[in-house]
Amino acid sequence: MRAAAAAAGVLLLNGCATSIQLPAAPGARFDPIAFFTGRSHGEGTLDTVSGSPVRVAVDSVGTRQGAMLVLDQTIRRGTKPPSVRRWTMRLVAPGRYTGTLTDAAGPVTGNVDGPRATIRYTMKNGMQVEQQLALQNDGRTLLNHLQVRRFGLRLATLTETIRKLD
Fold first, then answer.
1. Domain CATH number, residue 74
2. What is the DSSP string of 37-76?
3. pTM, 2 dp
4. What is the pLDDT of residue 20?
5. Phi, psi (5° rounding) for residue 52?
């Protein structure tokens, strides 16, 4: 009985955990459209509750189409075949972005506060995604922390470093 109560407490705390705040360049202002225009490369680790950590590599190419950014990505997860996805992003108000993502069931929203951005969307399978990007001192590196939740429970976490190549 005690084990069941302890497990329930862990699940409750997991669902209530707040997002971490990544270190970022003090005084900087992150512009996601400018950063992701051109080529970038990310490397990180995906941790899921159901398996071992998996290495992830993401190659991105962003192009501007008028006021919108179109970002095409090739994702490599461990030994799986590469997958592709597309983001679109548009500034709708100071510090506020909206867009689409191949993996999302509806709109993607983004908010920028100084050197950090928070992105939120719901995946087609109903899982909720919250992502924090933090611009680093060199202006060409981002830290990325992404969490996937379902029913308030954290199912996966991605930690990644993204570097602007162009």
1. 2.40.128.20
2. SEEEEEEEEEEETTS--EEEEEEEEEEEETTEEEEEEEEE
3. 0.86
4. 81
5. -80, 155
Give the three-state DSSP class for 13: helix
SS3 26: coil
Q: What is the pLDDT of residues 42-86, one digit of tens each?
A: 999 999 998 899 999 999 999 999 999 999 999 999 999 999 999
Reported residue count of the chain is 166
* Number of domains, the chain: 1
Structure tokens, 97:
């972005």
Residue reference for tokens 């084990």: 3
| Range scoring the smallest mean pLDDT among 49-53, 141-145, 155-159 | 49-53
Instruction: Band the pLDDT of 19: cuts 50, 70, 90.
Output: low
- Cα(32)–Cα(113) distance, rounded to whole angstroms? 11
Tokens representing residue 113 in the block: 């506060």
Contact of 139 with 27, CB cutoff 8 Å: no
What is the residue whose two structure tokens read 């991105």? 60
Which residue reads 């689409």 in tokens? 100
Residue ranges making up the domain that contains 6: 2-164
Tokens found for residue 112:
């920028």
Q: Are 86 and 73 in contact (CB under 8 A)?
A: yes
Distance, CA of 153 to CA of 130 (rounded, Å) = 13
